[in-house]
Specification:
The complex is a heterodimer of chains A (315) and B (485).
Chain A (H helix, E strand, L loop, with lengths): L13 H15 L7 H26 L7 H17 L5 H23 L6 H19 L1 H4 L5 E2 L8 H24 L1 H11 L1 H6 L4 H27 L1 E2 L1 H4 L2 H14 L5 H16 L6 H16 L3 H12 L1
Antiparallel strand pairs in A: 1-2
Helix pairs in contact in A: 2-7, 2-10, 2-12, 2-13, 3-4, 3-5, 3-10, 4-10, 7-8, 7-10, 8-10, 12-13, 12-15, 13-14, 13-15
Chain B lengths: L2 E10 L2 E11 L4 E5 L6 H9 L6 E6 L2 E2 L5 H6 L2 E4 L11 H9 L13 H12 L14 H13 L5 E5 L7 H13 L6 E6 L2 H5 L4 E6 L2 E6 L1 H6 L1 H8 L19 E12 L2 E12 L3 E5 L6 H8 L6 E6 L9 H6 L2 E4 L11 H8 L5 H14 L1 H5 L10 H13 L5 E5 L7 H17 L3 E6 L2 H7 L2 E6 L2 E7 L5 H5 L2
Helix pairs in contact in B: 3-4, 3-5, 4-5, 12-15
The chains are: A mainly alpha (315), B alpha/beta (485).
Amino acid sequence: MTVPRSDRSDTGPWPYIVAAIVVCLLAAVPFLGVNAYLLSILTLGLFFAVFAMCWDLLFGYAGEPNFGATFLIGTGAYTAALLSSNGLASPAVCIVAGAIAAVVAGVLLALPALRLRGPYFGLVTLVATLILRQVIILFSDYTGGEIGIAVPDIITISSTLNFYIALGAAVLTALVLRLLVNSPFGLVLEAIGQDPLNARVLGFEITKYKVSAFCVSAFFSGLAGALMVFYLGTASTNVFVDASVGVQVIIAAIVGGRRTIVGPAIGGVFLIAAAQYLHPLGSLSEMGVAVVALVILLFLPGGLLGATRLFRKAR
Amino acid sequence: MLLEVTDLLKRFGGLKAVDGVSFAVDRGEILGLIGPNGSGKSTVMNLIMGVLKPDSGSILLDSREIGGRSPNRIAGHGVSMVFQHSRPLHQQTVLQNLYLALLPNRLFNFRLSPDIDSRAHDALKLVGLEHFAGRKPSELPFAGLRRLELAKSLVRKPSLLLLDEPFAGLSASEMEEFSDLIRQLRSDERAIILVDHNVKGVRALVDRIVAMSSGQKIADDLPDHVLASPRVREVYLGRGDEAVFRRPHSPAPDAPSALKVEHVSVRYGEAIALDDVSLSVPRGEVTAVVGLNGAGKTSLFNAICGIVPASGTVEYEGRTPRARRAYEIARSGVVLCPETRELFTDMTVQENLGIGGNALAAAEKRRQTEFVESLFPRLAERRKQFARTLSGGEQQQLAIARALMMKPSILLIDEPTLGLAPIIFDAISNVIETLRESGELSLFLAEQNLTFALRHADLIHVMEHGKIKWSGPAGEFDAGSALIA
């Protein structure tokens, strides 16, 4: 008797080979003589890729739209920044604390919110972001309010090393989330997202699975948020606790191709890179990104990754 | 006894969907739960599975109370349910969909256990899908999806298997094959309950029938006895003495048509809901389409009103519009009062009527409101009440009243008496007669309740399996053979 493969894709080993090649190419980027500017864009793009992948786990699989991605990211970022700026912990401890704080905050939010049905879960996550932002502004003596907190410590000043940290975070997140969604746990999660009633009747306690998915999503969001604080040197609400940043995470995930994990990662890098390259257009740049996103949403409902599938089918 | 249901009660607002139902099933038995649409049979199934929580009464499984527990716990006790509609995982294969059903309810579960594969293959073989293991569910025919859902239930080795309308949407030959499959599942370890509106479909399959009507059990006996029971025949066919309501009048064959349907077909994915239907609705008369739930009546009305895409042509008062958009059809005077009523529940009675009369000029709107309020005095009394606080019968009156506010030339009413107490029938009957006598509009009713249809209709169309089985004047209609045979 053979043990069934837990790998559920029927496309053979090719996606993994392609992914390995892409990761190797990215790892080689610093040696290709690219300038520091491009490297910094890619670094930010990779952090954004983590955010988008985490969002995809919740929406693409568990079927819950999280409009408050920055609630989780911001909790991680501000926890790390507060600990560091008060001289309480080393960067490594701050980062781990950030990730854990995001999980705790995530569970406190998810436990009551996941009992709600329909669009209410999404609204609760949105409101949570707004509240976190107001709390930060209210306690500006400690949090720096809208100006933000400068972080005294840094991990490294080398842009190459910072790039590798972001790449490491993105690859780790992608690996863990892909393994997770391909496991029996992922199968149940996807069933819950598609037909919660049927999943319950098959004997699964769906809240348990959703809260777990929320924890995983929160952990990597918080981790990436904390890492990004040390990369940027400051934590500010406009970067870390902002509903419009949350919307960008959603756009990145959908542009890349939801329910794939890898697609949203591509979408995250794409969105940041597109915004930077269109920067010379001034205020038109945001418009440009929005138009590109709209075109992809309208004409490639499977996202960028879905487009490659169409191509494969056409062959 | 494996399952003992006692005095089960479930209310939806003012409506008692299940009203003191008791019955029992033992291992080795196949029980058919039948009743017209709205009789509460699906609600009973959902109460047993825990999808709904009972208001009172008890549900004992192996002498253990399971009423009111969550579906996943009830599933853990060995109950499994196959839904009429369900969405399989489309990114995964048929085999992986079965893996899902075999997984334990455990979070830290990252490897499939070794025997899962053989158990999944066994179940696929049992339902005849072994050659589809590696395919995606989207590649399965409609009946195959039903088999997949059945296999998902079977791998869990349920002691009680609940099948909700297992034959809905299947063709006659598929129905036969599926019946054979269910017959094979009979075992000493397991009881099967299947819900169906179609008496013919289940009589040969089941050992015993529990019949329901308006939330109550009206019979519990061997299939032949239940079908012979006067009470059951009355629910399905209506009382014989009601024939006096039949109008002697029959429409002239060359009467002008308000609505002419020609070769109309509707498909939902693989399922054929309406199969090449042609019929006409004479102007100024009352026409009824009768048939059991699932026969295609609602699909026909939705096709006429442009709500579902359909092939074929529909002629409205002699015109065949090229673009058939739902709102254009409604504005042109062909108005549907849908089975599900679709009231604006968080608006008042007055506001609901106002929306119906939105296109009318102020004075005309006032006149029309007075007219419908004279037809439905109850609604005038409840002008300021929210629609959701009305009783089922009042909601039905409001739905018809709102449709009348659009000043239709053709009014289609889908199941005017669905789920209503007989006492409300009279109120609706009077309205239909008043409208007929006004001569201003043509009425087209879809009814399961033959008595009600025969009381009003001049022309009857009988539907079965998406096709017109019989058409003719109400006077020539022989009820007995048409629906129960």
